Amino acid sequence: MKQSMMLIPTLREVPADAEIKSHQLLLRAGFMRQNASGIYSYLPLGTRVLQKVEQIVREEMNAAGAVELLMPALQQAELWQESGRWYTYGPELMRMRDRHEREFALGATHEEVITSLVRDEVKSYKKLPLTLYQIQTKFRDEKRPRFGLLRGREFIMKDAYSFHSSHESLDQVYEQIFQAYSNVFRRCGLDFRAVIADSGAMGGKDTHEFMVLSDVGEDTIAYSDTSNYAANIEMAPVINTYEKENEPAKELEKVLTENQKTIEEVSSFLQVETRKCIKSLLFKVDEQYVLVLARGDHEVNDIKLKNLFEASVVELASGEDTKEILGCPVGSLGPINVENVEIVADEAVRYVVNGVCGANEDNYHYINVNAERDFKVSRYADLRFIQEGDPSPDGKGKILFAKGIEVGHVFKLGTRYSEAMGATYLDENGKAKPMIMGCYGIGVSRTMASVAEQFNDDKGLVWPANIAPYELHLIAINLKDEVQASLAEELYSLFNANRFEVLFDDRAERPGVKFADSDLIGLPLRITVGKKAAEGIVELKVRKTGEMIEIHKDDLLDKIKELLPTL
């Protein structure tokens, strides 16, 4: 393709609202433009990268036995009401009414639509297992879109759904799709980890996220320093063994702690370690309030709390609700004399001796607090976030943290949707049973952004060859020079005839502009036709390494064929 015919509006300055490298470079290099907050147009170069990623996804999904289809983005509210998610999904679901006052949602995900489709069309175990997938735009009304394509309100996603008559069949397909995803991200050149994850609003159990390692990632990965264990920090279990300090229990005492609200303030004021403090937080777990206790140097993990209660929604109670229910502000909360809400605690709280907690009275705390003597806990459980240095949950090594960008997620849904929506099949004995389901998603536009985040330098993007918008960037220094122009056209025809994807910069621009744009766009190989055109010699530059090679045109094809598979 000739560059003069393309829409590639490059920018010299970094856009003011672009915070991270991928967002900055995809805008500067002319791959996309913002239409509204969290909503983007993909320009020709960006579209080509997306198509490359989609093709890799299709090849791996097809190889795993999945079949492509396309479902509507506009979904009837009735389907979401059948599953129950219409009432629980939250404000991210974009809802609307048509002219007849019928309610719809723009597809954030497609469990309800695919379940209703298969429910109506598949009746016998003989048709199972069945795995269907699509690549489609999704919509989620993010409260704070940011980081370009990493957190948008409209994005491109591959979602797949499998249907089974046995858990063994689901396990087998889950492993096949897991491997397909690993292949996809490996082929895209990404440094990633598959980590144990939470299923969130999707429901189900046994789920993994595929995380691209990046300092700008919004998720934290907890991984072992000596094994291959990795989990989202929300899901990593704590296996610490705690021991009580060898000191006698002292008499409970209420003390004045005027204007001391936080754990740090209270521990400093009372001159005790934060681990001797008991943190008390009021949560709303579905429709009930629960007081959750943790050690002062630990943080309550709301995902573990949700799983403990098998709840749909867990959220921290507001200051107003806290005062109404427990009669005091958040900074003075404690478990002593609390009888109107259930109290649960992290395991570490059981071992605090002569600790400190709020007195449920402004400006006062208790000291010498001991669990069971001074307050009762209905349940102890692992309710805190794992910390760096904790033992790895697999018993091998210590935990370290890394940041990650989620690009894929695989779930074992079980019968969560099929039971709610009546998706059954007849087994060998003619008995109706609910289909067992799996769900699998890849963020296609997120994958493009993640590659841009990992593959760049101070000059611009550095695309891996198999997803670069073009493989070759052909530049003629001076098209007014007939020899240069002739050789450039000759090479352009040669590359096309040999099925190389080539972008030919035929613009009437200064060489410096062409080279700067070329580095910014980041195609794997650049061929420059310049002063030695009369000798048939051109300059070949490897974008990844910066290596420059002077080479005769007759040797060019062989050299390109040698280099591209390595880039």
UniProtKB/TrEMBL annotation:
Substrates-to-products reaction catalysed: tRNA(Pro) + L-proline + ATP = L-prolyl-tRNA(Pro) + AMP + diphosphate
Subcellular location: Cytoplasm
Xref: Gene3D superfamilies: Anticodon-binding domain (3.40.50.800), Bira Bifunctional Protein, Domain 2 (3.30.930.10)
Positions of the Aminoacyl-transfer RNA synthetases class-II family profile domain: 38-464
GO molecular function, one term: proline-tRNA ligase activity
Note on domains (UniProt): Consists of three domains: the N-terminal catalytic domain, the editing domain and the C-terminal anticodon-binding domain.
Family designation: Belongs to the class-II aminoacyl-tRNA synthetase family. ProS type 1 subfamily.
Subunit description: Homodimer.
Entry protein name: Proline--tRNA ligase
